[in-house]
Amino acid sequence: MKEILLAIMGSGALMFTLKWAKEIWQARRVRLHPTSAAAEFELGIEQLLEEALSSTNADRVLLLRTTNGGGPIKPGKPIYIEVYREKHTYAVRSVKADFQGVEMDTAYAEMIQQLIREQKISYRTEEMSKGNILHDTYLADRIQESKIRYVWEADNFWFLSFSTVTAFNSHDRHRFEVITRRMRTLFRRKL
């Protein structure tokens, strides 16, 4: 047995085995206890959405993104809406499951184009055009007012939606601007 150990140590196989075992242990540790930039990014998103919900009159806060099923958004390809993260109060229901891979209708596409140009949009449900995805969702949950904010554009177009069953005040609008800037900072650091 002693001869075998000396042969392994002499050939460098023991050192190779120890390095291999260390790499496996480190990879497993990272997988079980993520401390990566991606985990910090996700945590930052959750904290900002929670802050928006707790510090304003918002009843639902969404981080949404557009997709086309893979690759960058291009003309002629269908565009889909997806709720990436959601926080809401008891006053409204969750819409995350309803907005996974939903093809954008004309009204939603026009809203995205306006958002790209203006960076922010305000809606009062009573003033919206009827019969589109957004209007129908707002009516179902008695949403009175909504603020949409541009966040980031890379392969996907990212935006925030703040909505309420009551009304927003000047403090809320200020908080939305602060939270949107902080969300953009998160995306800038990630990408």
Describe this structure as you would to a colleague.
The protein is an alpha+beta fold and 191 residues long. It folds into two domains: 31 residues; 154 residues, GAF domain (Beta-Lactamase), CATH 3.30.450.40. It is 48% helix and 23% strand. It is built from six helices and six strands; from the N terminus they run αααβββαβαββα. Strands 3-2-1-6-5-4 form a six-stranded antiparallel β-sheet, with helices on both faces. A hairpin with a 3-residue loop joins strand 5 and strand 6. It is globular and about 85 Å long.
| Proportion in helices | 40-55%
Would you tell me which CATH topology of the largest domain applies? Beta-Lactamase
- Evaluate the radius of gyration: 24 Å
- Provide the structure class: alpha+beta
Order of helices and strands: HHHEEEHEHEEH
Model regions low in confidence, pLDDT < 50 over at least 5 residues? none
Give the termini separation: 54 Å
